[in-house]
Amino acid sequence: MIAKPDSKTQGFSTRAIHAGQEPEPATGAVNVPIYASSTYVQEEIGKHKGYEYSRVSNPTRDRLETNLAALEGGIAAKVFASGMAAINAVATMLKSGDHVVAGHNLYGGTPRLFNQVLANFGLSFTYVDTSNVKNVEKALQKNTRLVFLETPTNPLMELCDVHAISDVSHRHGAEVVVDNTFMSPYFQRPLELGADMVIHSTTKFLNGHSDGLGGVVVCTKAEQVEKLAFLQKAAGAIMSPFECWLILRGVKTLAVRMEQHDRNGRKVAEYLARHKKVQKVFYPGLPDHAQHKLAKKQMTGFGAMISFETGSLANANKMLRKVRVCSLAESLGGVETLISHPATMTHAAVGPEGRRKIGITDGMVRISVGIEDVDDILADLEQALAAI
Ligand SMILES: Cc1ncc(COP(=O)(O)O)c(C=O)c1O
Questions:
Q1: What is the pTM of this model?
Q2: What is the pLDDT of residues 296-310, one digit of tens each?
Q3: Does the annotation count 107 as an active-site position?
Q4: Count of CB atoms situated within 10 Å of the CB of 81
Q5: What's the rounded Cα separation, in Å, for the pair 115 and 93?
Q6: Is 154's C-beta closer than 6 angstroms to any atom of ligand 1?
Q7: At what angle do helices 83-91 and 222-235 cross, to 10 degrees?
Q8: CA neighbor of 103 nearest in space, from 141, 58, 150
Q9: What letter would DSSP give residue 125?
Q10: Active site residue 252
Q11: Is 274 annotated in the active site?
């Protein structure tokens, strides 16, 4: 029997390729099989090989959960049918009467879930600018159980200090959850900074190929794992074995993809910052970003997510109609460059007043820089921006 890789001492890429991805024992297949089985045969009542029904557990899913826990440095992970299903699972670990402090600029679907669904079940939410830890401290109440953060935020690219916010939240008895979708565990590991759980939309960088939806919650405590396993069984929003397999495959190249995303991201941000028609660029890797110092301390790369201001809805539309290498589409984190319009896409649900309050304008464009040849991306942006 070959010894299992030690997920604590091995490097990131080794863990991405091997943690949970050991050869399949029956045949030696180097790739984890897709166990497309809803149920498992039992020898006698209660005697089985650890699997009874795939809503409860599935071997392909187990392997992915082991892998993602190793990448974030958690004790275990639980995967769900989408990023939103993962966020919903975390929120439904709470009880009626509990309070959540959340960042004021999250992916638009998150406050939609909080305000339009979960508030109807007795949870309450306070939204603050989490770029300042004092705002979080002021918002904490006796019944605050959770502090929900995104860093960098979507699409304003504001950071929050995970270490400082974790300290203050823990003193008040609240746990900290970080949506780490934008950075991936390759560039940022919130659990090492003191957070209690990490969530991802695996739809994005972890999968990396824009061909499947999913979500994950990575845990630091046995009670969290137990509650989430119960929610998988009770509520059933689990990830399918096929989607698990896509992510197991995608994650093997996470490190090399993220390096290339980051190299291209920096070049695109610098290009946009120099462009006369671009009024402002939001990217933590630029020295004039208000939290550039924190970015260097908290992250090991700046990533591929950039927002920029074109001045008006008409300007945004003029350029977005012209892109050819970049694809005008929602989502992010794929190998292809995706360009989107937050006000009408990801943050439409926030409403015009909500967007105005936090500074998402109609002229803002968000780009998820892919891993194509960067000169082709730059040439495409050049010809598209010429339309303004
Ligand atoms: C930061 C972030 N979190 C969560 C989600 C939701 O993930 P999904 O679309 O997989 O449900 C998204 C989707 O765009 C996102 O950008």
A1: 0.97
A2: 999 999 999 999 999
A3: yes
A4: 18
A5: 17
A6: yes
A7: 110
A8: 150
A9: E
A10: no
A11: no
pLDDT of residue 81: 98
For residues 336-350, average pLDDT? 95
Whether the per-residue pLDDT at 355 is higher than 60: the answer is yes
Catalytic residue of the set 204, 227, 252, 366: 204
Q: Average the pLDDT over 135-163 and give the result.
A: 97
Least Cα distance to 327 among 313, 345, 347, 309 occurs for 345
Separation of CA 213 and ligand 1 centre (Å): 9
SS (H, E, C) 326-364: CEECCCCCCCCCEEECCCCCCCHHHHHHHHHHHCCCCCE
Average pLDDT score over residue span 82-100: 98
Report how far residue 296's alpha carbon sits from residue 313's, in angstroms, rounded to the nearest whole number: 33
User: Which of 317, 330, 315 is closest to 280 using CA atoms?
Assistant: 315
Output the pLDDT for position 9: 81
Task: For residue 270, give both structure tokens.
Answer: 């610098």
Q: Is the dihedral of CA 149, 110, 248, 74 positive or negative?
A: positive
127: helix, strand or coil: strand
Q: Which of 204, 246, 331, 347 to mutate to test the pocket of ligand 1 (most atoms within 8 A of CB)?
A: 204
Distances (CA, A) of 306 to 3, 132, 286, 358: 42, 21, 10, 17
Q: Please give the number of the atom of ligand 1 that sits closest to the Cα of 84.
A: 11
Cα radius of gyration rounded to whole Å, the chain: 21
**Bond into 23 cis (ω within 30):** no
What pLDDT was estimated at residue 115?
Answer: 97
Q: How far is the CA of 67 from the centre of ligand 1 (A)?
A: 20
* pLDDT above 70 (res 3): no
Length in residues, the chain: 388
Residue pLDDT, tens place only, 180-235 = 999 999 999 999 999 999 999 999 999 999 999 999 999 999 999 999 999 999 99
**53 vs 41: CA distance, rounded Å:** 10
The dihedral over CA atoms of 271, 272, 278, 283, expressed in degrees to the nearest 10, equals -150
- Pick from 319, 339, 321: which is nearest to 329 by CA? 339
385 pLDDT band, cuts 50/70/90, is: very high
Nearest to 182 by CA among 164, 156, 161: 156
The span from the CA of 355 to the CA of 350, in Å, is 6
Q: Is 33 helix (H, G, I), strand (E, B) or coil?
A: coil
